[in-house]
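Schema walk-through. Below, the input block comes first and the output block second. Nothing else is stored per chain. Lengths vary across the set, and this one has 142 residues.
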Amino acid sequence: MKPVVGAAPKVVKSDQEWRQQLTPDEYRVLRQAGTERAFTGEYTDTSTVGVYACRACGAELFRSSTKFESHCGWPSFFSPLAGDAVILRDDSTMGMARTEVLCATCHSHLGHVFEGEGYDTPTDQRYCINSISLTLSPDDQA
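--- output ---
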């Protein structure tokens, strides 16, 4: 998995506009690359069928069909939606080499992706995403 930084964000707002739109906790995670506490997010254990979108801009990011139980404390997905829904960036903060996951539309921080952990998923990847970075739209047919 090679990190790729995409083009400029399609949704651009000033810092003040983001602060007005987002709660302080949402702003800390989405715009300042924070992390919510493990096992506290609203989507950690949900099994609702639907689409997960970026809480900041509404871009569709993940389907519930790619969500799996990783028991890590955050919602985990084995793949984002097809296309360029997310972009990846090297992250060496916290004294670790990780790969950050960003919304391709607004460049908000979503979480990190890890691979080679041995999960029984089609990609052997774990997109570890903060619940506070997402909104879930349930499928009507569910």
